Amino acid sequence: MIKETPRLYIRHLLERDANRLVEYRNKEEVARYQSWDHYTYDEAIVRIRECIRHRDYMSSMKDCHMAIVDKKTHIILGDIYIDVKPDKTFCMGYTLDSVYWGQGYATEAVSAILDYMKDNGFKRVICYVYIDNAKSIALLNRLGFKQFEISYFYQDIGYVKYL
Q: DSSP string spanning 15-55?
């Protein structure tokens, strides 16, 4: 386990998680705010295996996804993406099943990862959010992120937070 909160735990992805990732990542309302239109089982397996091979992502400069899991039900609610960069910086993304939107799970999970990464010596986090993703923009603002750019080409906004 990477990090625990009152309602969640965040852990490495396992191959048995592939079907669940495909399930929520293929919901139209979820994929709308991500870089994919359709997410296949094979893509999930390849991604999970890559993350398993690079569990030491903090020193290998490899990116990784982690599962956001409900402590009571053990259901994966979503996932968090971490991409370690030089100079104690990381990029972060998150995907949450739409069934769990508006219940504070994303805020709880993102806050936990920010604490975890700060405890591991990181100083800055960068997130990119599609311009029309009002809920995610509100989450980042609530957590103290500051906008630093808008890309009309990619239709996203860059946010930064110093830990």
A: GGGHHHHHHHHTSHHHHTTSS-S---HHHHHHHHHHHHHTT
